[in-house]
Each structure stands twice: as C-alpha cells, then as structure tokens.
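Archive entry. Fields below.
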Amino acid sequence: MNRKYMFAFIAVLVLFLIAWIGASIGLQWLFGVAVPYLAVLIFVVGFTRKVLGWSRSAVPFAIPTTGGQAKSFDWIQDAKLDNPSSKFGVFMRMVLEVFAFRSLFRNTRMKLKEGKLFYQLEIFLWVGALAFHYAFLTVVLRHMRFFLEPVPWCLQMLETVDSFFRIEIIYPQFQFGLPAVYLSGIVLLAAVVYLAVRRIVIPSVRYISLASDYFPLILIFGIAFTGIMMRYVAKIDINAAKQLTLGLVTLHPTVPDGIGAIFYIHLFFVCTLLAYFPFSKLMHLGGIFLSPTRNMLGNTRAYRHVNPWNYPVHVHSYDEYEEEFREKMVEAGLPVDKPLEAAAETAAGKE
Amino acid sequence: MAEAKPKPKDVLDQLNYQPPRADWMDTPVEIRKGMYCYASNPKSVATLGLPNARPWNPTDEDWKLPENWQQIIHEGFKERLERFRSFKVFMDICVRCGACADKCHYFIGTGDPKNMPVLRAELLRSVYRNDFSRMGKILGKLNGARPMSVNVLKEWWYYLFQCSECRRCSLFCPYGIDTAEITIMGRELLNLLGLNIDWIATPVSNCYMNGNHLGIQPHAFKDMLDFFVDDIEEKTGVRVKPKYMKKGADILFITPSGDVFADPGTYTAMGYMMLFHYLEEKYGLDITWSTYASEGGNFGFFTSHETMKRLNSKMYAEAKRLKVKWILGGECGHMWRVINQYMDTMNGPADFLDVPVNPITGTRFEQARSNKMVHITEFTADLIRNGKLDLTPSRNDYMKVTYHDSCNPARGMGLFEEPRYVIQNVCNHFYEMPPNTIREQTFCCGSGSGLNAGENMELRLAGGLPRGNAVKHVQDSYGVNMLATICAIDRAVLPTLVDYWAPGVQVTGVHEMVANALNLSGQNERSTNLRGEEIEDLKAQSEGNADE
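PREDICTED_STRUCTURE:
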C-alpha cells in the first residue's frame, strides 16, 4: 500500500470527521462563519503574497521556449504563436495556454517496440485536465448563486445549459434527477477520479507523486461528492443554506437551524482547499501567467531585453591577450596593436 | 573509451522503464562509471578565480567541500530565487502531471527515473521546500521536502550533469517549466562549491585565456587555417586567403573552435573559407577572423551566468576593436542560444555596430537589428535566394541527406527554415526524419551542454538513442547516408553516435555541403569532395546501396 495516497486519504477522512462532529455538537457558528472567513482571508492574503513574491523576482533574460520558426525574412513564414514576435502573439499564446492547455495538447507517449521508438499522440491527460478544470470552473460559477440575490441572468443561463441533459430516475424508494442534474458536477467527479486513478496506476506517475499531489484530488473528490449528495440524495434546506452564505458576503453572518451536517462538511472541505491553495502546487493557477518561457517575446535579437541586476564582470581583455602572445603573433604574421619594439619600451619604462 | 561498448541490441533489450519499488528519496545515488565526467582540474578553476579549486574525485567519499557548504548552497539558492523569476516560479508550480517524463532523451535512453525531467527538478525542489516553504518544513517528507545533505548534493551533481539543457521537456510542460533553467541554476550552485566537471572547466579556462575552448594559441590557430588553405587548394585548385583581425573589415566572423580542430567539423570550416573567398573575389566582401574571439561556443553557459558573460564579452569587444560593421556567426548550437537570448542583454547594447546589411543583396537583417549578429545559414540563405551563389548541387548527389535540428537553434531561437532552405539548394536528395523527432520536437545528440567527454560514453550513447533511432529509420526507409547539422558539438559527437545506432551514416555541417556545391573561379574539375573522396566512386557506392 502506498503511504502517500493513504496519508492523503486519511487526512481528508480526518477533515470529514472534524466537520461532522463539529456540526453535530453545535459548533455551527465556528464551521459556518469563523472558518469560512478565516479560509478566505488566508486564501486572499496567501495568493497575493505568493504572486507578489514571484513578481518581485527579476526577469534577467528573455528566455521564451521557441516552438516554431522565428520571424526572419519576409519569404519565410514565421510561427506567430509559438515563437511570437509581437505582443499580440504572446497574448494569444498565453490565451491558448491558459484556456486550451496547448502545450499539454502536444503530449505524446513514447513506446519501445522491437528496438524502435514510437511516439503516439497521448490525448487523455489533456482531455482529463480540460474536463476537470472547466467542470470545476462551471461549478464555482454556479455557486455564485449562493452569494448573489437576485441571481443574475447569466448565472441562470449557465445553470440551464449545465442541466441541459435530463436524467431522471424516479422510484418510490429511490429518486435521482429532481432537481435537474448538473453535468458539471458529474464531469468534475469523473475527471477527478480519472486524474487520481491515473496517478496511482501509471507506474512512472505514481513514482513522482507526492502526498501533496493526492491530497487536493481526494479533497476535491470530497467536495464534489458531498455537493452531489446534498443536491440529489440527502437533500438539505437550500434556503437556509443560502441565508447563511448571503449572510457571509453581506457581513451579517447568521447561522440558520437545520441545514444538516453534510453542508458543514462540504463547506469545511472547501475552506480547507482555499486555505491550502496558496501554499501548494495549486498555485499553478497564478504561476502560469508569470512563466518566462511562455510570456516573453521571441524577437530577442531585434530588441534588447534589460537585466535589472546586470553587473560588470572580470574579462580577459585583448590587451592582456596580446601582451601574452605578442611575439608569437608577430612571428606568425598576425597583426598586433603594439609593435614589438614599442611594447618592449613600455615594459622597460615601467621598470 | 577503450572498453568494449555493449551491443545496441543488448542495450535496447535491457531498457526498462518500470520504476523501482523504493521511493526515490530512499534510493541513494550511485555514481556509476561511464555515466559521469571527471572532476574539474583545480588549475582551470583557479584560472577563472572560481571557488574551491582543489583536486577531488566524484567516486571518493570525501568531496573536500568547504566547511560551511550547506550555508553557501542555502544563500546561493536564496539569491537565485530573487534574481530569476523563472527559478522561483518553476520551484513552486509543478503539479507532477508527468507529461515531461518520456520527453527526455536521457530518460528514454537510460530508463533511470531520476532522468525524468520532473524528478530532476524535484531533486532541487525537495530542498527548496525544506529551506524556503513553511508547509514543506512542517510536513517534511510527506510534502516532498528533505534537508540538504552530502548525499543529496552528490545526487544533484550526478543528475545535473545528465541533463543537456535541451529544453525539449519545456515544450511539453503545460506551464513551460524549463528543466534547462533548473539545471543551469543547479550547476551554478554546484560551482559555488567547486563541483564542476573538467570537460567544462578546462575549456572555459582555455577560452578565457587563449580565446577558444581548445586553448589554441594565436599562431597555432593561424597554422590550422593555413593547413585548410593548402587542403582546399589541393582539392579545388584555388588558394583562399583568410584574413585575421583586419581592422575596418566589413564583417567579423566567429565560429566554434571545434570546427578548426576535428573532423568532420574541419570540412565545415573549409566551407566557410571557400564561401568567404568566393564573396571576396566576386563581390569584394571583406570578412575577417579573429584569434582573440576565436570561439563561438560558450561553455561558460554550462558553468554560470557570470562565466557565460565573461567569455561572451570577447565577441563585442573584438568587433569594437576591429571596427567592423557587424558580426557573422558560424554553425553552432548553444552558441546561438547565448547570442539569441543572452548576449545583447549581458554585453550590449552593441551601438558601435551597424544594423546588419548584406551589401551583396541589400538585405537588411531586421531580425538582428539590436544585437547585430547574423547566423551563417541566414546569410547564405539570403545569398542563395537572391541568386548570388554559383552552385552545382549535383556534386552532392551521392548524398542522401537528413537534417538534425540542434536543440538550441530550435528551442532557443527558432531557426528551422533557413538551414533547410540552404540544404535543399545545395543537394538533390533530402529526407526529413519523423515529425516527432525534428524541428521544435528535435532530440538532443545526447552530448550537449558540455557532456561530450569520452569517459561518459555510456551516457552519451544512451542519450543519443532517440536521435540514433530516427536516423536509422530514414536510413532504412530512404537509404539516407548523410546527417547534416548546424552544431559543432553535433559534428564532434554524432559520428560516434550514428556509428553505434545507425552505422553507415556520416555527419556533415551544412556549409561543407555548400562548399562542395560552390563553384570558384579558376577551380579544377572538382572530382573530389572536400574530404578528398572521388565523387564518382561515392555515387556508384550510394547507388549500389540503394539497389540492394
């Protein structure tokens, strides 16, 4: 058994128990108000500090990864996105990187068969990653309805689209699909399971994975799972929940009765994720924008990039070089700055 | 080098990509013969005034480190996090998705999991988390953090000198994390403790004092080119007259010294000389060589940013002293990453030079308008495009050519079309290797970034497997017998590599092919190529091979 994912699993289990017990023994105020405020504070301060920390570091050299032909002659087509020579090109490269994970789309898988190497397109990680991030984004946006009253039309539209596919299972014993099923929740759950299973099953990925790689996956699984449970199975008093969340954003926190422990577990998971975010790899959300191999111009010979800490260094000057080799140079017929006699005189003068 | 190499088939059969059961942090480094390069010579380290010059041996228990070495590493790490945003961001944002894992030629060739780019970076990240993050400190190993120790240091050294800074992984990384950048920082830190390899340290010291990596002194440098003059005359009947440090020349030409020293690079050097002779005779273009700035390459780049700057400074200094208009650079790999992404920033602005203009064609090289340095394939492509060269490509008909994109001109510059344009105009049979192995996805020769020594041959052959395999593919499919390249390290190492993975293929520089095709006034019947081989014999041989 791999200690790393067991540890991450146990950590999430402990979080679950803390929230469950807390909600059961009447600590609703703590888990419904204090912890969320604290988590948001940690998230905002931590995220900002991290990004400011990065931006305080210098960018001494322009080091874009050039993924295509540089701009050179007008008779040669340049790669405007992969080797951008204009700010617009850089912008588009970043847009595609951030919204379409373009570099990951290039992914291949190497196979060695009978002494020959093959590189096949490996699309699954890209698909899984895209599904995960877009489902997560949709879920986050949908949740804005809990913080806004009245709910803006664009959110309502998003919900309509998200619940476009109707799945309804209605038996006296078991009901599912009322209210309408949100696709994003299901996709998020499926994608997070895929990403976790991939981490465990592929030997090389398992080998490089840390407990801190499994933890956010399992935590997000917990968030999605409790969310789905609340909506479709162990239905909670949605109006009471919204009363609480609206109270949080309007800075008039209230803790209505009877929301149910599962809500507090869900909320506590989310708070943990927020507080954990700035100190973890999840900061790739901010870091991608500052990655010098992607956000810099490729026209480095046409425009000089300035290094803020460029300092003078010891060099071996031509004069020192000629001083050492003058005789040999003259003998070989190489031109020198100081003829032999003049150099000899200077040397004599010094003595 | 004397030891028998294992057979390629055995190497392939033994390749295993299954990682071991034990956690990587619990697997101590084993410094294995054939995989590492010898330790830096203290004399070379001292010449440069770099720290901790002393004799040491990587296989010894005691590396003779300074007493406060841990503090030096910690302080050095901290300083670099502040100086390089790349380093800081790359330490923080990796999600270990594994997309980079099988993109590294050293991983593909060795199966050693610590050669997966992600894990190479984790070697440093683990220490970063321990030293610079609270979460890492509290959670320790669970969060992938570990304190610095002698064993960790040895692991750094071993694996940071098994990375050729080729940037292939950075192309595939969703955040653009560049292992080259991490290796560069790691090697800088190692150099603070005097832990360089000699294959880098001594060339750097040579270049600093004598102007080139090989330590060739000025008169000897001239001797070598004079030897080429005789050679060219023997083969073409034309006596070329290279110029040295001519003040007021139009152009200063700088190329890696490897090309004046070892075959087949020497033929490329002859190619330059013939081209320059042609341009002078026909158009009066005045190009000069320099013995002071007689190195295009820059092994300082593999030592530290500062050392890179110290060596690179000679290019502009010499151009200024000689009062030339602009600089022309020869075929070299990492040289062009330095020129393209570092030189202007480090040692510019080169406001004493003109924006490069080719006086023969009138072309203004806008792409180099700030740093004033033009790549020779750009220069030649422009000449060919404007019909300024008299070429007989059929003299290269015995060649079935494929082209190896060198890592740095590919992923640190984006020079793809110019060399191809030149090649296709000087030969008639050109075949590309599979798309996943060329252009921006090109594979390293396995010996870049100062790892082209003899003692690490096993590493070099393993790292060259993906390239060798692709060459073998075009050899089997199209009868390719010539591998063209624009990198001096390639020319030095690929012959050994293709001999091993694709025997029968030879290696050439692009300007050797240009010179073979180029017609000089007053030339003889040109029945041989620059290597002195009878072209008709080669043609018959090549056709014979194709018939089989």
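CURATOR_NOTE: Chain A has two domains: 3-290, 318-350.
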